[in-house]
Amino acid sequence: MNTDAQLKEIVRQKYSEIALQDKETNQSSCCGAGGCSTEVYNIMSDDYTTLEGYNPDADLGLGCGLPTQFANIKKGDTVIDLGSGAGNDCFVARAETGEIGKVIGIDFTPAMIDKARANAEKRGFNNVEFRQGDIEKMPVTSNVADVIVSNCVLNLVPNKDGVFKEIFRVLKPVGHFSISDVVLVGNLPEALRKDAEMYAGCVSGAIQKQVYLELIRHNGFQNITVQKEKPIIIPDDILKNYLDDEELNKFKNGTTGIFSVTVFAQKPACTPGGGCC
Questions:
Q1: What are the residues facing 265 on neighbouring strands?
Q2: Which three-class secondary structure state does DSSP give residue 175?
Q3: Distance of alpha carbon 135 from alpha carbon 200, whole angstroms
Q4: What's the pLDDT band for 74 if we cut at 50, 70, 90?
Q5: Ordered structural domains, the chain, with CATH
Q6: What angle do CA 207, 193, 236 make, to 5 degrees?
Q7: Is the pLDDT of residue 12 over 70?
Q8: Per residue in 140-185, pLDDT tens?
Q9: What would the 3-class secondary structure string for 115-137 be?
Q10: In Å, how far are 31, 43, 104 from 36, measured between CA atoms?
Q11: What are phi and psi of 45, to 5 degrees?
């Protein structure tokens, strides 16, 4: 069994490789990891190309939703993107905040940070910055963000409870998040659950949908809303790397589901110890 530290290192190494892959390779696999599929194109990610601020250089095809589309970002907001990759969601968020706002991307993979900074510099975006760090311990002071977004990242983090605690700390009172993530309904086959490659590919690191929502509630957030939900269908030619024919048939015809969800939640105006209650 891999430890949390080992899983983090697996993700760090894999996403260093992914930073050098093209978008088509990433989209035809599981968040850029796992064997590429010849059956379908675009397994998880949604189409960003119609959103203002979109830039193809920053789109690695790694997402599983469009959190910035649902995030209700306003002019002048401070927005933080968790697991910012090459900067795709940050640049879309910047189009919403305008030049008077601020966008901070956090990623713990040096190759991604380098790529994102180069993309921002190329476009002269002085109000977009990228910080290398762990989203379980964000390099950001408390109560600074109006909005937090993230796209298919928390499923990669072993300590999801710790991330939600950090999100709560960093958000301003009445600030909110909109996060797209991968969740489960039912139990994954053992081979998928254990395989490190599939962990780096988002799937085996996902947790049950109800557990995910309860983590958010447990950490003090309110107005929790599932803004969007869609099934994720992993093609047979990827699943066959992990399951034999009998296991594959049982998995496809069973009650287990893998879903992309976009969840909104808000930090209350008053919190224990916050001095206003």
A1: 177
A2: strand
A3: 16
A4: very high
A5: 4-264 (3.40.50.150)
A6: 105
A7: no
A8: 999 999 999 999 889 888 899 999 999 999 999 999 999 999 898 8
A9: HHHHHHHHHCCCCEEEEECECCE
A10: 10, 10, 31
A11: -75, 150
